[in-house]
Amino acid sequence: MARQHARRTCHFCGVQAPQPEMTRQIIFVETGQSKASLSGATIIGAAAGSRSARSSVIRTVFNTGGRTYYRQREVWCCDEPACVAAASEASLRSRKTRGVPIWVGVVVVAVIGLLILLMIAAAHPAP
């Protein structure tokens, strides 16, 4: 009797094939988001003078960013070019490859610092 391989389903196109004909891919899937929120009790507490409620209101108003939660998911992919492209695109959209490189932040801070120094130098001419 011939040995049978487990059948896997392609995550991207739904084709079923024996496991040796499929490749395993790791993709990141968005699972949720968190944002700061206010309740009526927090607003009343801030109006009454509560320091923690006031800081909560300030944090909610001025911090518009939230956090997106991801998890790793192991999927199977067939050898079709469209599925391979979709798998590579899914890995490019992962949180680990998203974002700005550190050197860009360093350059921005350096340029802003130079602009501030130039503005100070222009405001106070040398005697």
List the helices and strands and how they pair.
Blueprint lengths: L6 E3 L6 E3 L4 E12 L5 H9 L2 H12 L4 E11 L3 H12 L9 H22 L4
Antiparallel strand pairs: 1-2, 3-4
What share of residues are in beta strands? 15-25%
Distance between the termini: 98 Å
- Number of separate helices: 4
Number of discrete domains? 1
Largest sheet: 2 strands, antiparallel
Derived from helix and strand composition plus strand pairing, the structural class reads alpha+beta
Order of helices and strands: EEEHHEHH
What is the arithmetic mean of pLDDT? 81
Low-confidence stretches: none
Summarize the amount of helix as a percent range: 40-55%
Number of E-type strands: 4
> Any idea what the shape is?
flat
Across the major sheet, the strand order is 1-2
Nearest-angstrom radius of gyration?
26 Å
Keywords:
127 residues, alpha+beta, single chain, 43% helix, flat, two-stranded antiparallel ribbon
